[in-house]
Backbone:
């Protein structure tokens, strides 16, 4: 009996292990000689442990198969941690995979020098809204939420008209760390006409006017109190799907109708959901797509078995099954389009024809979002830069909580962050 | 309740592999005895005032999960961690109980974090007994976490002492071996597990701070010789640090991940050692910073000694009088050229030169003038040869010259020109008849593959040709083949 160590991120919180076990059932039936140990790690903990492997040249208790965020692939390749999958399987191809996700599978710049990771599932961001709240406030969601200025007006309107200020918020914060990430801000930056890094990926552009403008717009949601930062009772802030917000930018799709925890929470919330593109800050709509990849550790002792498990998980059927079970999307456009078919939540409590319309509405919105979406750039040290950026955002979030945040502070922080990022880029780019 | 707490105490005092294992066991015992749906442990970052979830136990699963709570000064959770409240109770959105993880010593207490107990599936409020039990469990866990933390610190301290011993040994070794600098950098990188260690050294002559070497997290060494910074204030922050300025605002920003260590020997700046965790973005432990700073003097001394060793090595490769390579270096190079000649089928010539009447010059005019003669002959040789040619002071007044890619006729032409140039040279000597002396040289030439195919054979043939010139009037050059024919 061979035991494979499979390290995953908490993809579906407490359901992470059961959801995975469900998908793995067929694999284990076909491979009775293999046992799979699933370990759930946070991104921070995984990052620390991967570096620890390198520095201590650890040989035992190594994971065989690991889930990593797409932005980590280039740096882990550079550090020599990952197995080139094309060495194991010369026939491996990324053809099926949605094109924007491919460049994160190889060394920086997507050079044709091997395939080191395969996309497993993805999140594609859109703006969700509650139709009942929009109707009550006479908001034409598709029109009024077209621009960021419109979004802010709607937020203001919701806040003004809620009887439960401090409990019910205009827009949810999807970030569980009571903070803001590069992924959260990227669509606003792009839409303001900015970029995060120079085209040749040798400099950061955080301090550029468009970048500052885009980030400022997003942070204004927090600073204005429209987006909650602190959860009540120290819990993660409640969101749209818990019934505590009217809007939410999110990259997944609720697989089942959420339970009604609150009296304002409609039992048929999922049918009450509308979806549209992330509002544009100035020029064009943009969205961000982020994928989770699977990689093999170079030092794994069970490459063959681990690769067959990897292949099984990224195979179209299993990829779709798993992505759908956690509310994410498979990494193909066909898979994305098919994700809404026969959704139980969409059909519940409605006539079949209406449910079908809502299905089409979701499919259309996500496919439109796919047209304007891109991932964060494939930059060798992006994993490290994300951590620097997180620190910057922590500083700003603290200032927002202390009510002394202003745009000058954002500007200063971004100038420093850009200098810090440029220094590392100059060393490693 | 006492019995339960005692059981908890016994369970937590068993050996655990890690803090996580200890916490996981504690959470499962709490969930079992206080009937909750989820228990989570949060650890406090006192500088940032952030509680970060360490583990959450729900049902039979114990997981790591991303959750952070910002503590606002004065907020109920902040008061809890500060020890101003014994517990926090919420009824909405579901029953939640927070208890502090605070370690209490003899004279002071320390906030470690909080535990959160939740009931999702029931609205039953926490009873007085449950609150007391949770507090008791939290106190016990805090004592154990603190103890485990102290044990870990002690273990780390021991490792640091052992690191110190190892590094001292490495530094001592670096005095005796080639690549001493490499050894020092690798030693520091490996023992402290930094992402990278870089070394810059002051070149006083060139007035520059020069990049020397860099060791990465896999112990691989790279040269930084392409980096040169003029030693002027304000030109570059590295130079400013070496010149004694403090860190600039940008350096302050990444002070947790980069440590700059100016190196001084007897008060004189000799370089800069930079260690960083820029890629992993892991903070450098304050204890490591302290250790490295206190060790900076020794590092500087070891680096300086290793550099001196390299200089001495350089000196021993070249003759200080003539600046010509010495026999050891020449033979090594000779071997390589013979190999190259064979491998690429290229000709190679060896010239063996000897100063005529050198003994008489020394006896008549003294060794000082003898030295000057050799020096001048060497100067002519260095001036006349191509870049690829390789001369050497083989010993006394004997000079050997390797001429790669040279056929017999080329070698003869070069040899004859050298003989002529030396003949034309005049060395001023006040007390000689002509106020100057004339020197001549004899030169034997052998070629590969024409005359010989091995190093020894080639040297022997060149020596034989030289002998022939010496015994046939000196002041001339002859090919081995010619001498054989004439003989």
Residues:
């Amino acid at each position: 009996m061979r035991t494979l160590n499979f390290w995953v991120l908490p993809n579906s919180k407490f359901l992470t292990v059961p959801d995975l076990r469900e998908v793995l059932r067929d694999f284990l039936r076909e491979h009775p000689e293999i046992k799979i140990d699933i370990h759930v790690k946070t991104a921070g903990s995984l990052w620390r442990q991967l570096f620890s492997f390198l520095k201590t040249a650890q040989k035992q208790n190594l994971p065989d198969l690991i889930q990593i965020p797409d932005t980590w692939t280039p740096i882990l390749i550079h550090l020599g941690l990952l197995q080139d999958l094309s060495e194991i399987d010369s026939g491996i191809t990324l053809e099926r995979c949605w094109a924007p996700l491919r460049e994160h599978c190889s060394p920086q710049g997507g050079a044709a020098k091997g395939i080191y990771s395969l996309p497993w599932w993805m999140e594609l961001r859109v703006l969700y809204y509650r139709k009942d709240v929009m109707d009550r406030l006479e908001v034409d969601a598709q029109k009024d939420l077209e621009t960021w200025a419109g979004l802010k007006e709607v937020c203001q309107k919701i806040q003004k008209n809620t009887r439960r200020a401090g409990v019910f918020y205009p827009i949810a914060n999807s970030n569980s760390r009571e903070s803001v990430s590069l992924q959260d801000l990227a669509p606003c930056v792009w839409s303001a006409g900015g970029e995060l890094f120079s085209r040749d990926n040798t400099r950061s552009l955080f301090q550029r006017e468009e970048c500052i403008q885009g980030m400022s717009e997003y942070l204004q949601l927090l600073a204005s109190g429209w987006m909650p930062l602190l959860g009540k009772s120290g819990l993660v802030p409640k969101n749209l799907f818990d019934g505590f917000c009217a809007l939410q930018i999110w990259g997944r799709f609720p697989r089942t109708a959420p339970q009604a925890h609150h009296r304002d929470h409609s039992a048929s919330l999922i049918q009450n959901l509308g979806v549209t593109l992330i509002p544009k800050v100035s020029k064009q709509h943009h969205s961000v797509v982020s994928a989770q990849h699977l990689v093999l550790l170079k030092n794994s002792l069970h490459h063959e078995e681990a690769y067959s498990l990897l292949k099984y998980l990224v195979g179209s059927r299993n990829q779709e099954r798993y992505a759908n079970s956690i509310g994410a999307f498979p990494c193909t456009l066909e898979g994305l389009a098919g994700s809404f078919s026969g959704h139980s939540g969409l059909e519940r409590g409605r006539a079949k024809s209406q449910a079908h319309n809502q299905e089409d509405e979701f499919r259309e919105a996500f496919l439109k979002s796919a047209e304007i979406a891109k991932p964060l750039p494939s930059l060798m040290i992006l994993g490290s830069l994300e951590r620097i950026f997180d620190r910057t955002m922590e500083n700003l979030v603290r200032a927002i909580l202390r009510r002394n945040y202003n745009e000058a502070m954002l500007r200063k922080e971004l100038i420093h962050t850009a200098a810090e990022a440029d220094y590392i880029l100059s060393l490693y780019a | 309740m006492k019995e339960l707490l005692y059981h908890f105490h016994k369970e937590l005092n068993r050996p655990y592999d890690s803090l996580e294992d200890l916490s996981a066991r504690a959470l499962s015992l709490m969930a079992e005895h206080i009937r909750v749906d989820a228990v989570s442990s949060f650890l406090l970052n006192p500088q940032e005032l952030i509680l970060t979830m360490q583990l959450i136990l729900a049902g039979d699963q114990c997981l790591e999960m991303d959750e952070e709570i910002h503590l606002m000064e004065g907020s109920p959770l902040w008061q809890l961690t500060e020890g101003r409240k014994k517990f926090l109770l919420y009824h909405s959105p579901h029953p939640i109980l927070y208890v502090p993880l605070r370690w209490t010593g003899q004279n002071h207490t320390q906030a470690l974090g909080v535990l959160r107990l939740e009931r999702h599936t029931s609205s039953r409020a926490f009873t007085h007994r449950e609150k007391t039990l949770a507090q008791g469990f939290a106190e016990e866990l805090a004592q154990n976490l603190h103890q485990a933390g102290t044990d870990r610190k002690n273990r780390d301290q021991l490792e640091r002492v052992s690191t110190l011993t190892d590094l001292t040994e490495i530094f001592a070794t670096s005095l005796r071996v080639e690549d001493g600098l490499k050894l020092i950098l690798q030693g520091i990188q490996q023992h402290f597990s930094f992402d990278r260690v870089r070394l810059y050294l002051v070149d006083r002559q060139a007035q520059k701070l020069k990049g020397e070497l860099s060791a990465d997290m896999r112990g691989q060494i790279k040269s930084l010789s392409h980096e040169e910074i003029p030693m002027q204030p304000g030109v570059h922050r590295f130079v400013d640090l070496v010149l004694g300025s403090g860190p600039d605002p940008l350096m302050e920003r990444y002070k947790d991940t980069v440590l700059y260590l100016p190196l001084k020997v007897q008060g004189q700046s000799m370089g800069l050692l930079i260690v960083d965790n820029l890629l992993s973005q892991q903070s450098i432990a304050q204890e490591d910073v302290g250790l490295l700073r206190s060790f900076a003097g020794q590092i500087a001394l070891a680096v300086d000694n290793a550099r001196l060793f390299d200089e001495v090595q350089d000196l021993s490769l070249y003759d200080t009088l003539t600046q010509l390579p010495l026999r050891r270096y020449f033979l090594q190079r000779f071997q390589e050229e013979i190999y190259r000649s064979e491998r690429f089928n290229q000709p190679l010539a060896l010239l063996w030169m000897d100063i005529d009447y050198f003994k008489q010059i020394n006896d008549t005019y003294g060794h000082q003038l003898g030295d000057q003669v050799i020096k001048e002959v060497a100067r002519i040789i260095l001036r006349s040869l191509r870049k690829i040619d390789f001369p050497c002071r083989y010993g006394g007044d004997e000079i050997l010259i390797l001429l790669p890619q040279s056929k017999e006729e080329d070698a003869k032409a070069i040899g004859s020109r050298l003989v002529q140039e030396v003949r034309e040279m005049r060395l001023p000597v006040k007390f000689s008849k002509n106020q100057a002396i004339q020197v001549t040289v004899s030169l034997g030439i052998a070629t590969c593959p024409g005359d010989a195919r091995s190093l020894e054979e080639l040297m022997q043939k060149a020596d034989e040709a030289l002998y022939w010139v010496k015994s046939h009037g000196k002041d001339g050059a002859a090919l081995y083949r010619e001498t054989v024919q004439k003989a």
User: Anything to note?
Assistant: The mean pLDDT of chain B is 87. Chain B has three domains: 2-152, 179-315, 327-486.
